[in-house]
Amino acid sequence: xxxxxxxxxxxxxxxxxxxxxxxxxxxxxxxxxxxxxxxxxxxxxxxxxxxxxxxxxxxxxxxxxxxxxxxxxxxxxxxxxxxxxxxxxxxxxxxxxxxxxxxxxxxxxxxxxxxxxxxxxxxxxxxxxxxxxxxxxxxxxxxxxxxxxxxxxxxxxxxxxxxxxxxxxxxxxxxxxxxxxxxxxxxxxxxxxxxxxxxxxxxxxxxxxx
Length: 210
What we know:
The chain is an alpha/beta fold. 40% of the residues lie in helices and 14% in strands. The strands form two sheets. It has a five-stranded parallel β-sheet, with helices on one face. Helix 2 crosses helix 3. It is elongated and about 65 Å long. 26% of the residues are buried.
């Protein structure tokens, strides 16, 4: 699929070399099962690129789940990601699948992966290495899930500070994809301005003369 078709399909505005390069890389890696670490500042479109990779892959007809690791309370994130058995904690009245089981055969996008607690980092590392994990309360589960991860943090620095596991970083960073901020592709600003002026003029029934 050519770059312009991808832009049209996913609503991407811009024609800078940096943006086109990132789209080209996403398109190439989509045909593989490699783990991809998408980096960039907040607002650069990391989730959009995870959708590009999934939708252009052989997994496109299976589930896609986006999980914001920083938005789930630390006390429940283990259960949310990996599920739990009945009676494994107060309130666990039934067994429940986590996101990894739900997405079996598809793709899971872990946004802000740098916010994962260290004990969960160990479980994620095991999934990447063996495609296995333990539900909270016991049972071992096997899954076939492609992992895409994203962060706006400096994971190299987090590894040095001991807040992020080095072995997990290397497993996630199999295929790095950096998305440029707008200040590095200023030639796209007029295109974005024209897009939003046209969009909101149409929405509010206004005529734009120039």
